[in-house]
Amino acid sequence: MATSMQKLVGVSQEDDEEEMEMDVKEEDDEDEENGEKQIAAQMMIGVDEVKPSTSSSDQFQYQPQLQEQVSNQSGGGGARRSRPLEEKERTKLRERHRRAITARILAGLRRHGNYNLRVRADINDVIAALAREAGWVVLPDGTTFPSRSQSSPAAGTSAGMTSSSSQMVSQQIPPPPATLQGVSSGYRTTVEYNACRMKGVFMPTPSPYDLSSTAPAQSLGVVADGGEQTERLPLIAGSTQVINDKQIIGLPTKLPERDFAGTPYVPVYVMLPLGVINMKCELADPDGLLKQLRVLKSINVDGVMVDCWWGIVEAHAPQEYNRNGYQRLFQMVRELKLKLQVVMSFHECGGNVGDDVCIPLPHWVAEIGRSNPEIFFTDREGRRNPECLSWGIDKERVLRGRTAVEVYFDYMRSFRVEFDEFFEDGIISMVEVGLGPCGELRYPSCPVKHGWRYPGIGEFQCYDQYMLKSLRKAAEMRGHSFWARGPDNAGSYNSQPHETGFFCDGGDYDGYYGRFFLNWYSQVLLNHGDRVLSLAKLAFDGTCITAKLPGIHWWYKAASHAAELTAGYYNPCNRDGYTAIATMLQKHGAALSFSCAEHHILEQQDHLREALADPRGLVWQVLNAAWDVSIPIASENAFLCHDRVGYNTILDNVKPVNDPDGRHFSSFTYHRLSPLLMERQNFMEFERFVKRMHGEAVLDPQV
């Protein structure tokens, strides 16, 4: 690196007054009049540079030895003044020529390279920016060394990943090059990153790794605008610089992260907005959508995912389907040579987190529900949930002479016939089958409309007459007809496990009745998934089908796993509730769609601890259950994600490091297309994420 820098800097600069013009012209004029100048010390081995006189905005601390050298050399000013006039003129010409070249280089880097160089940047700033882009760490005092990622000889291939690569930090945001004269903008979480953008205030956070095992560290309070010390953070010794009278931590501007070059190709899809098709089954904004799809295609996104809403397509009468808007959308996607993932959405949209439109169930179904509300899930208090149909009517002919399962099958079969050409051409690559609220295979145990708030345990949803009929039958077969009831001590939507007699440690959930009830409750969920997926496999023969599971991570560390139990997953600490689901999916050749549960976005760690949540533990339990039966895993992000921290977390889940079997997800769907994603900064990060998903090598965009 020193050799390269010598080539850029050139030979040691002349010690005369005219050479100081390259930094600040006003200071140069003073130097010519007074004939005085501070002489630079050796900043790097093998490179001697001139140090400009300090100003109020650059208050560097000089070592005593350097000050002594300056004082010693200042006494030899007479020798400098004796130089011939011709030599001084030649020096001036050389410096003017050099500065002109430097100005053109800086202008080109600013305009075409997205380098955030200061107005009066010098060659040191350029070298530092280029070094950081090449993967080197450059500290504010000029100390330069290779990052850990460069020290790994096998970086870049999945086969070459060693144990050291698993320790690489992947959840960091490298800041722009040469910002604040080489001072890093720190390591910021999603919330802090956005806050920093809004306020323009530097917000450092601790680095998760040490630059060296022997480097001493200290703690420093960051001073806010009002003079208040806001936070005490670890500080690497010798990396502090004073800027605008504030102490700012000078941390490395590039942290090593996993290199995904050469890793398996994972297709990336983008979920289209919920309201891309309006209630008349027309494209809401075809021109705007086409522009966005072209932009996605330009960064090699593989395709898009779209909900095919039951409440829109079969809105007015049974078996009268209107898919005109979807026809136009699919044609648009095919012309752009993208692929499609389609969701059979048999639930309503609206009332849940992230829903920005309202799409109810078909009108004719709502009419049946007004006369027979028992077709909807019901809680212990008798409150109905019209978000989707109760699984109790899967085999009950209450929908104008058809069962719920028959209605679903007719809908899927007509879709397959109408869009046959898209299936035959491989444009439609996957069909996700809606199996419950939000399209997920679960009970609607946590409805916001009924007052549920995180981290409530939710309530059992088995009190419509059809579910109770099934419960009575199961109790009679067991020989205990008095068990044909739901728990009466399971609390309410916002209860916590220890507040209930059913879910507390040693509670009734682990007694004879509790085991019977939970086994029946979870078996109804399994039976519903089994019935619908068997018909989906028949309707979409030859096309991959998937079923979606949510990540219910709160109360995961409690013995009862209460929130999972009310959702239908019989997964207490002494039982694996996901193996049976994975086996059912494997029976039908279906893939599992599961949220990555990006635990970095769950910023409120106190709330996580209070709720005994364990997102990471849940993720790995579900993934292992699926991998044990060799079913593919598709995924999507559970939360809004636009920064590198979130993308790195997703990448680590999609492509687990050092997996002995080389397992990875089959596809990833980004949730979802929006104007915010299309903002330049966010889209650049997304493009980088797509490349890494595809196993391509990337150069960090300097943003």
From TrEMBL:
Residues 151-172 have a biased composition (Low complexity). One of its GO terms (biological process) is regulation of DNA-templated transcription. It comes from the Eukaryota. Residues 79-209 form the BES1/BZR1 plant transcription factor N-terminal domain. Pfam families: BES1_N, Glyco_hydro_14. Keywords: Carbohydrate metabolism, Glycosidase, Hydrolase, Polysaccharide degradation. The keyword Hydrolase applies. Its EC number is 3.2.1.2. It catalyses: Hydrolysis of (1->4)-alpha-D-glucosidic linkages in polysaccharides so as to remove successive maltose units from the non-reducing ends of the chains. Residues 13-34 have a biased composition (Acidic residues). The active site is at 440 (proton donor), 636 (proton acceptor). Residues 52-73 have a biased composition (Polar residues). It is an enzyme of class 3 (hydrolase). Transmembrane segments: none annotated. PANTHER family: BETA-AMYLASE 1, CHLOROPLASTIC, BETA-AMYLASE 7. Belongs to the glycosyl hydrolase 14 family. This is Beta-amylase.
